């Protein structure tokens, strides 16, 4: 399976600006990227940072692009199934079927506790499964095509990737991932775990950072382990907004 390349767009801090994110997505399409991936938060560790809506950003990107796949993260346990199902159906229609949902448990307890929700991993996992099932029922009732669904999971914990094997793709996450390159052996183990349990050919997704001159060599070990999507993670830890825009215009290895 050929590798495809997306740019990863935070929705917080200096990146918490839907107009800027949409402009980056348009530039990504123009410079050969295959997709754009948007985060999902309602608050962040630094409470002074702006936080913009993943669904609004995804809709704006859908309206201004024609080719790139839109990978919209949803912290599903803190959302209502009917709202996500409706928004996904609308963005799917607006984009001409270019939406993929990346469903996750969420990385911040505060996004649950501050809104009266149970932050425990067990409660979140149960809620995520219930919402995925309910969304499938609603799309069927509405006669709406189900978008591809990927699931995230912190490796070496298994639950998230077991869930992913029941759907269309997996995005394994690793400790301190933004501070170091993921060991290709760790990614290979996570990928094998998903493939052994999947009934079809799931997408296998990894987030990381490359330089334009070394991107192909950096991605190659993960490709050998079954990678199908590379997400070029952009954010404040790599530089400011102009630095992110510059990396987008440099294009992916396949461009």
UniProtKB/TrEMBL annotation:
Gene3D superfamilies: Luciferase-like domain (3.20.20.30). Residues 17-213 form the Luciferase-like domain. Pfam families: Bac_luciferase. Keywords: Flavoprotein, FMN, Monooxygenase, Oxidoreductase. This is LLM class flavin-dependent oxidoreductase.
């Amino acid at each position: 399976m050929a590798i495809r390349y997306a740019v990863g767009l935070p929705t917080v801090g200096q990146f918490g600006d839907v107009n800027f994110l949409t402009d980056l997505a348009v530039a990504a399409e123009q410079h050969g990227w295959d997709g754009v991936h948007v985060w999902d938060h309602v608050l962040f560790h630094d409470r002074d940072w702006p936080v913009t809506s993943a669904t609004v950003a995804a809709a704006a990107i859908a309206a201004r692009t024609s080719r790139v796949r839109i990978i919209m993260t949803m912290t599903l346990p803190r959302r209502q199934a009917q709202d996500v199902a409706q928004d996904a159906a609308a963005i799917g229609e607006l984009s001409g079927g270019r939406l993929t949902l990346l469903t996750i448990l969420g990385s911040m307890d505060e996004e649950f506790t501050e809104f009266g929700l149970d932050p425990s991993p067990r409660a979140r996992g149960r809620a995520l499964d219930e919402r995925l099932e309910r969304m499938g029922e609603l799309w069927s009732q509405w006669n709406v095509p189900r978008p591809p669904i990927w699931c995230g999971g912190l490796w070496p914990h298994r639950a998230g990737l077991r869930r992913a094997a029941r759907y269309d793709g997996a995005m394994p996450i690793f400790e301190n991932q933004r501070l170091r390159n993921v060991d290709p052996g760790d990614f290979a183990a996570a990928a094998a775990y998903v493939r052994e349990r999947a009934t079809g050919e799931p997408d296998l997704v990894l987030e990381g950072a490359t330089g334009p001159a070394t991107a192909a060599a950096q991605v190659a070990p993960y490709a050998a382990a079954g990678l199908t999507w590379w997400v070029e993670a952009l954010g404040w830890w790599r530089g400011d907004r102009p630095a992110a825009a510059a990396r987008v215009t440099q294009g992916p290895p396949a461009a």
